[in-house]
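re: ur question from yesterday

yeah so i grabbed the chain u mentioned. its 304 aa long if i counted rite. heres the sequnce exactly as i have it in my notes:
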Amino acid sequence: MAEVTHEGQIPLTTRQGKHWASAYAWPAIRKFIVTKPLGAIGGIIILLMVITAIFADTIAPYDPYEINQRLQFNSPSLEHWFGTDEFGRDLFTRIVYGARVALFIGLTAAFVGATGGAILGVTSAYLGGKVDLFLQRLIDVMLAFPLLILALAIVTVLGRSIPNVVLAIAIPIIPRTARIVRSNALSIKEHIYVEAARAVGCSHMWVILRHIIPNVMAPYLILLTAQFGNAILVEASLSFLGLGTAEPTPSWGLMLSGSALAYAERAPWVAVFPGIAISLAVFGFNLFGDSLRDALDPKLRHRT
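ran it thru and got these structure tokens back, copy pasting raw so excuse formatting
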């Protein structure tokens, strides 16, 4: 039962929670669709990918691990929409289940990397001094390596498994997020309201949680969304090179390796359809991330 004040009214926070979607969320979504049509297209691609991953058991007509050598390299048909691979497995089914792998690895790696980078960036900016100097030199060293090269090195050391692939993709994302979040946190740190909070005796943790973190959420969300596509692409690259997921996992990158190269002329669909799936996923996340940046960045907002 809702709490009632002495004036017989439901508290403002309860009413806001009840009507938030209709009063704020839907108008914001409609405005985003109207002003950022490309971002809306990217959002639709992402939504379709999420739906595909969630309902893969219902959408897929076959078992993704079922082997039937009699159906080896069958061309696309009404029974097998995307054809079959070298083991007679249905490609459409494996691509549908591959959405689960791509989303799990991509979203988990992007979240861990972006969140870790945001924490590191805020800590570095707020503490300053020798802590900031040490952390920034460490970030410089990590940024000297391209994302894919550093991920390759990490997964080579840790071994081939899905948790290790997630970690290998997340670690290179940390310095890229930390550098941008730090620059935003440095400017916020010098604002008058932060100095006032310190002057009245607020603890460092309170200042960080109340003033710094809320004001770096916009760049954090932009970076998080932008890194989704990169994480999916890096996972596909690692699997293609034989350092990501292992057979028989239905991974898009894994589908492009091995038979896709060996039988490119005989069965081109083995490479074409997984390649299209990867391209659409990365394209959708990049479109949505760029539009989200334009919508949330106050420096770019006046242009829309």
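noticed a couple things. Residues 51-56+81-299 form a domain with the MetI-like fold fold (CATH 1.10.3720.10). also Residues 91-127 form the longest helix (37 residues).
anyway ttyl
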